[in-house]
């Protein structure tokens, strides 16, 4: 069914608001970045629906409202250096790039990183650095980070990521056993340690060890 682009955008933003996305900067970022560019093939026509969709390498692009709620919980400021673990399609990184000073995004699939990189270049998003690797070890060379977002589920927050969070920094990630119920949590590093807030149930692909073969 064809819908005119303005109407489609209204519907897209309405879905986000109705799921609790209230931060104006996040809504503007979601309005600016065209999710349609990150979804290809037979699922392209569903790009503006509030649902996760399959992408290459057996992975998924997250549901737009989950992307927006995670971004909102991360409370990104224009001075922040952000690490994203799990580039996937690159959509979440493109949203973060609207709000942060610099975004580092890492994925274990070379192919996904290469394709996301191409899109960032086409969109003129010059403040994103892409890397191929196992993101559970973080990026010690670039640490500490003001914000860290993990878009794949681990049983517990990976130790290296906790260590690479700046004091006062925030990390948002899904935790729990893969394919059962996972919780989105927000970790805030304080001078004394870490505070944990449970935000909502979610379902993400698992955080997997090591590099993928493609
Ligand atoms: N943020 C993405 C969705 C990510 S799907 C988007 O906006 O489209 C989760 C991604 O995490 C997958 O691409 C998967 O390859 C990646 N991943 C899983 N384990 C990883 C690890 N240890 N290091 C880096 N990336 C990982």
Can you tell me about this structure?
The chain is of the alpha/beta class and 214 residues long. It has helices spanning 5-18, 24-32, 64-74, 91-99, 110-122, 159-163; strands spanning 53-54, 60-61, 81-85, 102-107, 128-132, 145-150, 165-175, 182-189, 194-202. The strands form 2 sheets. The chain has a 7-stranded mixed beta sheet. α2 crosses α4 (91-99). The termini are far apart. The protein binds S-adenosyl-L-homocysteine. S-adenosyl-L-homocysteine binds at residues 59-62, 85-86, 88-89, 91-92, 106-109, 112, 134-136, 151-152, 205, 207-208. S-adenosyl-L-homocysteine (SAH) is lined by residues 59-62, 85-86, 88-89, 91-92, 106-109, 112, 134-136, 151-152, 205, 207-208.
The computed structural class is alpha/beta
CATH superfamily: Vaccinia Virus protein VP39
How much helix is in the residues?
25-40%
The CATH topology annotation reads as Rossmann fold
Query: What CATH architecture label applies?
Result: 3-Layer(aba) Sandwich
Please tally the helical runs, counting DSSP H or I stretches of 4 or more residues. 6
CATH class: Alpha Beta
The spatial strand order of the largest sheet comes to 5-4-3-6-7-8-9
Largest sheet: 7 strands, mixed
Mean of all residue-level pLDDT scores:
95
Oligomer: single chain
- Which sequence of SSEs, written as H and E, runs from N to C? HHEEHEHEHEEHEEE
> End-to-end span in angstroms?
35 Å
From the spread of the alpha carbons, the general shape counts as: globular
């Amino acid at each position: 069914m064809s819908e005119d682009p303005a109407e489609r955008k209204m519907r897209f933003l309405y879905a986000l608001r109705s799921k609790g996305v209230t931060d104006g900067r996040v809504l503007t970022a979601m309005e600016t970045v065209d999710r349609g560019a990150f979804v290809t093939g037979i699922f392209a026509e569903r790009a503006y629906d509030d649902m996760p969709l399959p992408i290459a390498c057996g992975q998924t692009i997250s549901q737009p409202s989950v992307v927006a709620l995670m971004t909102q919980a991360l409370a990104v400021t224009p001075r922040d250096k952000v690490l994203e673990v799990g580039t996937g399609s690159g959509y979440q990184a493109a949203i973060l790039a609207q709000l942060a000073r610099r975004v580092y995004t890492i994925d274990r699939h070379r192919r996904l990183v290469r394709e996301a990189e191409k899109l960032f270049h086409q969109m003129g998003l010059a403040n994103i650095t892409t890397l191929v690797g196992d993101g559970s070890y973080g990026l010690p060379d670039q640490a500490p980070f003001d914000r860290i977002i993990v878009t794949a589920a681990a049983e517990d927050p990976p130790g290296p990521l906790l260590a690479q969070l700046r004091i006062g920094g925030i990390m948002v990630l899904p935790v729990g056993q893969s394919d059962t119920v996972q919780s989105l949590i927000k970790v805030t590093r304080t001078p004394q340690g870490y505070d944990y807030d449970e935000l909502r149930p979610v379902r993400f692909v698992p955080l997997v060890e090591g590099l993928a073969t493609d």
